[in-house]
Amino acid sequence: MTATQQTELHREVAGEGLPVVLVHAGICDSRMWDPQWETFAQAHRVIRYDIRGFGRSPLSPRLYSHPADLIALLDELALGPATLVGASMGGGISLQVAVARPDLVSALVLVGSGVRGHEWSDYVTDSWTEEEAAFERGDLDAAVEVNLRTWVDGPHRSPDQVDGDVRRKVSEMQRRALELYAESGADAQEEALVLDIGDRLGEISVPTLVLVGELDVPDMHAIADRLDREIPDARRATISGAAHVPSMERPAEFDRLVLGFLDDLEAG
């Protein structure tokens, strides 16, 4: 196993076999994949990395693109074609890469994935407004708690109904992201690689597994339905008893579904 930071993006590589790249959610960093790190590496070459502005990847005061960063990483490590396992924001990044550079992608696993152009509900937009207000007044603890309440607890549970370790780990990862944004975010400018990705889902030709937590916000279920409907070779599954981070809340079920999907692909 190696951990390097040869470029601005911190990454780790483990295992041998067909490549699988883990792309984390916007409320986490690459540590969200701790439950999968050993299980996936038993049969695959697994890569996880910190997206720019998260974990151990700095946010530079300049124009940047998350999908372009992933493409550069895939090219640098000569990984393509690889399976991209993208959670939430990581799913949206993976979708853009699949359209912009289809030669680099052999399959997709989209976990509570976002997609550009979705019309978000008041539940989500009110949460973002509350988080931004807390951040602007310098109350990072409150901003983190908004995210935990919205995404980790979800609309159907109270905090005491959620695994305390999962809540604590997400809290640490989210706070780190907010600290990095506070340092350089005002001078950094993100751009999309595929602006019209929501209109181009039908171009994705690789096998795709769409996963969503049973207790996730309704928006994520609506997006999962859309991805399942509009990506030609897609299948959809729901992970019970989990909200927006099912890989952390229900790792055994998550592994069963994803590794089973990968086994089916290898079997042909």
List the helices and strands and how they pair.
Elements: E1 2-4, E2 11-14, E3 19-23, H1 34-41, E4 45-49, E5 63-64, H2 66-76, E6 82-87, H3 89-100, E7 105-111, H4 122-136, H5 140-153, H6 164-184, E8 189-190, E9 208-213, H7 218-230, E10 234-239, H8 246-249, H9 251-267
Parallel strand pairs: 3-4, 3-6, 5-8, 6-7, 7-9, 9-10
Antiparallel strand pairs: 1-2, 2-4
Helix pairs in contact: 2-3, 4-5, 5-6
Structural class: alpha/beta
- Helical content band: 40-55%
Unreliable segments of 5+ consecutive residues: 1-6
List the quaternary state of the chains.
Answer: single chain
CATH superfamily of the largest domain: Alpha/Beta hydrolase fold, catalytic domain
Strand residue percentage: 15-25%
CATH architecture of the largest domain: 3-Layer(aba) Sandwich
The string of secondary-structure elements, in order, is EEEHEEHEHEHHHEEHEHH
Report the count of strand segments: 10
Number of helices: 9
Number of domains: 2
The CATH topology annotation of the largest domain reads as Rossmann fold
* Rounded mean pLDDT score: 93
Short description:
This protein is an alpha/beta fold and 268 residues long. Helices cover 43% and strands 17% of the residues.
Overall description:
With 268 residues, this protein is an alpha/beta fold. It folds into two domains: 2-119 and 189-267, Alpha/Beta hydrolase fold, catalytic domain (Rossmann fold, 3-Layer(aba) Sandwich), CATH 3.40.50; 122-186, no CATH class. Helices cover 43% and strands 17% of the residues. It has nine helices and ten strands. The chain has helices at 34-41, 66-76, 89-100, 122-136, 140-153, 164-184, 218-230, 246-249, 251-267, and strands spanning 2-4, 11-14, 19-23, 45-49, 63-64, 82-87, 105-111, 189-190, 208-213, 234-239. An eight-stranded mixed sheet has the order 1-2-4-3-6-7-9-10, sandwiched between helices. The chain has a two-stranded parallel sheet with strand order 5-8. Helix 1 links the parallel strand 3 (19-23) and strand 4. Helix 2 packs across helix 3 and helix 5 crosses helix 6 (164-184). The longest helix has 21 residues, at 164-184. It starts with a strand and ends with a helix. The model is unreliable at 1-6 (pLDDT under 50).
